[in-house]
Amino acid sequence: MKRILLAALAVFVLLMLLAGCAAAPNTQDSSSMDYFGNGSVARAPAEAPAASAAEEAPAPAEQAEYEYAGSGFNFDNSIMQPGVNRKIIFEGEIEARTKRFDEDLNTILTKLEQYGGYQQNARVSGTKPEKWQDIGRSATLVLRVPSKHFDDFMNVLKGLGETVSTSVNGRDVSEEYFDTQSRLRTLRAQLERLEALLEKAATLEDIIEIENAIENTTTRIEDMEVQLRNYDSLIDFSIVTVYLTEVNDLQTVKPADKSLGERISTAFYDVLNVLAKFGEGLLIFFIGGSPILVPLAIIGVIMILVFRSRRKKKAAARNNQTPAGQNNQPPTI
Hints:
This protein is 54% helix and 15% strand. It has nine helices and five strands, in the order H-H-H-E-H-E-E-H-E-H-H-E-H-H.
């Protein structure tokens, strides 16, 4: 019995050892890559032949991806290089309300001049409020501010009056800008080659063909130069749009003390205004309700006439009747 138990135990231990060996990882075929630097790079099998130097070197795109995954992005020959001057177009917009319209407008224009900016478009409408019902003035300003003073100028605007809304937008056009520059260099080199060919052209047909090519290339160069100048203008001078609205503060001003005669005159005119408004309201009521009031009035008049006619008839009937027990003979003496 003991021998059978020992044999069974030995067989069990042997099976456990075999299962452990089968579960062990194959270090030759397995690979893992943690893009945050926590994994290991895949290894080639030991029996694989040694790769050549050209095969070991990854392609530029693959190398960039690998270096970004493990040790940072490869910025070589890329506009994403930290040292490259980014081409960013900044735009700002602010809406504000103010009780000091003239002072705040003057502050905006003064600061704009100090920062070396200029007005691209400006519009002021309305009149200065003189009564509490007056709306006041409003200004819409489209300003160009040097980009290096963009933040400072926006902070100045936020300190004026009461800010209703504000927004800032930065658009990166570096890729489009540098791509246009690269294509412009290519076209200029192409133009130089065409001009060199024009000097060597022997036939009239070749001259005409080359001149047409030169004209087309020159047109494309001019278009790209205009595009770059527009980019430079938007990059160097940010666009800031200001909406400034004047708040009428006259309703909060207390009127000066008036004399007795002025107060009596004011009360008299107030009573007249009340009567006038009452008369206007009454007139509006009758005119507006005429489709209903006129038929009702006609019906009322008819009922009154009928009622009066009946009363007259009843009175006449009573006068014609003789009271009961009364003798029509004259009394004897």
